[in-house]
Records
---
Amino acid sequence: MPLRRSKVLVKWIFENQHKLQTVRCCSSSLRYKELEESAAQPEPLAAPPSPAPNTRPHISPEISFKSDDLQVRLAAPYQLQPKPEAGDLGFGKFFTDHMLKVHYQRQLGGWQKPEIMPFENLSIHPAAKALHYAIQLFEGLKAYRGRDDKIRLFRPDLNMERMNLAAQRSGLPTFDGDELIRCITRLVQIDQEWVPHSETSTLYIRPTLIGTEPTFGIQAPESALLFVILSPVSAYYKTSTDGAVSIYADPNVVRAFPGGVGNRKVGSNYGPTIEATARAAKMGHHQVLWLFGPDHELTEVGAMNIFMVYINDQGDKQLSTPPLNGLILPGVTRRSILELASQWEDLTVKEEVLTMKRVIELNQQGRLLEMFGAGTAVVISPISRVGFLDEDISIPTMKQAQPVFQRVKDTLLAIQYGHIEHPYARIIS
């Protein structure tokens, strides 16, 4: 075919690609110049098949975006925001100068090139599926500035694994978690001065994936947007003067149910908790202890996993948390606590069903020592009081001479801030 006719054909394909039935295999938009140049090249002779070196794994159902394709557009001086004082941070009130975006378009072959750009508002169609059917999910992890001034992430691979599981359940495209970690690493490096120079504050990282296809109909979206924003944060919420929280166990409301998405980090798990939490606050409590079933099984407390320390039937000190039965988010902090505490010879560690009846019995017998919540945002939150039906149960968490919750917290913070070298911490700067 003459070269001129090839150019015309290639140009027509490029301009009409949205009408073609076949899905292109590339992960980013084709460029006319590349097509033109490739059409001008003679077709190479066939070579024997050989395994491609460093082939990236395929993530069902599409090939992932690649960090090697990351494009960076830095903010202009006038776009930079003043950095707040550490004492003014709160949680999620301030945002850094840049963000990460990765678009997904099924008709264009799937994931497009990731881009870091100045922080900006999103432009989204009013009919986007994320707005109508809660086709969205998010993650939460942190960047910590260590005593050596190095910045660390805490087990980000587990966040990526959990994010992909939520995407799969929500009909959203999955991706290679390592590729997103590399993109996030670059984003944090660019905005590294937003990582607080303090061990009481951190940089919160919020990856989010939303369905953006502007059509009604409950089905997997043809288009999506993955974006990551950063926020310097301090304490997640206020506590009592002793640093502990009071929680209210309301048997009339549930957070999750069998076969649902209580074990996935989707927004629809959190919005419906606001009314119950506000009602608990009016009664003098900080958070809600979510129960399930006729036996009032403990599931989560607020947005945290819950732990209990007590003297078991063998006379040993035991650390227990409810099992992952589909009702509970598989927390990264939760998993880390179980793995770390299992190495302590003076403590028995177990996943078991915990009920309010068991809590009351152990407390009356003087065997209940501590209760605490755990999560990325709060790290460890000791619990000193539980409201349940007509009872007000005092938990002796803050009265222990050497509380387990403090030992757990000190160990986690030592890893996160680089006081000890540990494989859970990934140095990025």
---
Amino acid sequence: MSSIETMVGGQEQHATLRVLLISAAAALGGFLFGYDTAVINGAVDAIRGSFGLSAAATGFAVSCALLGSALGAWYAGPLADRHGRVQTMRVAAALLAISAVGAGFAFGVWDLILWRVVGGIGVGVASVIAPTYIAEVSPAHVRGRLGSLQQLAIVLGIFASLLSDAWLAGAAGGASQTLWFGLEAWRWMFLVALVPALVYGALVFGVPESPRHLVAKGRLAEARGVLQQVLGLRDPASLDSKLHDIEHSLRREYRPTLRDLCGPRAGLLPVVWIGILLSVFQQFVGINVIFYYSSTLWHSVGFSEADSFSITVATSIVNVLVTLVAIALVDRLGRKPLLVVGSAGMALTLALMAVCFAHATGTGAQLILPGAWGMTALVAANAYVVFFGLSWGPMVWVLLGEMFPNRIRAIALAVAASAQWLANFLITATFPSLAEIGLTFAYGLYATFAVLSLVFVLRAVRETRGMELEAMRD
């Protein structure tokens, strides 16, 4: 079996092909995360027209899944600690499959919202479990790259959903037009999500349980077997030493609760606050405005519906490519330097977008960017995606999967991910109303948060490159 070898803590560890495959299988939850959250992009105008929604109601219909995601992320940690990481991934797959069918056959806006919330719960669970599981089965020297598979899967899911939206809308002659079996194209956009949900559910039946969860449950023989598989450790003394390290780091005989996150600073441990703020800033820079509303946005400033879909797909391709670059750099340059570059770049490009929309004429659907301002805004938006995809997209998930001590990892990640989903909901739900105030104001606000994120990284974020999970501290 092919492998990458290193010496960590005096023990020879291998990044085996098996650990790559099981990490990829777990990261497929990220694919569903990206697909399920971005699929609404192509359906926004059709849903708004079908149900006669106001700007505020449209914002809620688009963002309601994120409330479910916050709920799913909140309970994912306790569920994973009680029943295991793998069983929890299976629950996420089931919820996502049910949501795809329900949303596709929704008969009204409230019915659609219900099924989107169900899918959101599944997304929230997957968003917590995948990075936790990948971090817990990965050797330290490649943990950043394997952890970045989560973000790669997310951006591939976004790309697949936007490509699917564009193809379905093109085949029907518009997202609101009838396609197959009397169903509008926007309904098929949701129904197609059933396929990856079923694939995810099937694949997670073939991955082993996390060795750290097995140790926490006292199942040492099983943990030894998994460590032997994923790290390639053959020497019994090395296996015993690794098991001892894990046992020592866990230091618990009970399931962690929110009380374990309490600390001297505003009621929480400093590392928990850092995780929460990483999550919040990742959303407050406005990235999901691009992926949830971009088709509507470009359509509103003069591009045709077909061109708007094409631009959105092209942007998602850019996102995938820069995520691959981030994966190549994360274990070489570290997490913090990439976050610094990303924050600075996003601040500049968001400010440029704000300037571009300051030159817009008209309002609402008649908004026009004259002269070269439209192309400048398009370039700035894609440059913004480059900086995000290189930094805050993958780095936040890598850090959340590895920065917390073993004894609180699952529940701390659940709290941080819940904060992320609530921040995502706030940004997504308010964008239509902010856009009515003015896109210059909206993008200027996001640029301000990008500047604040730069200050936060420089002052508070600790580099974790090459550190063993057992070395993480409060």
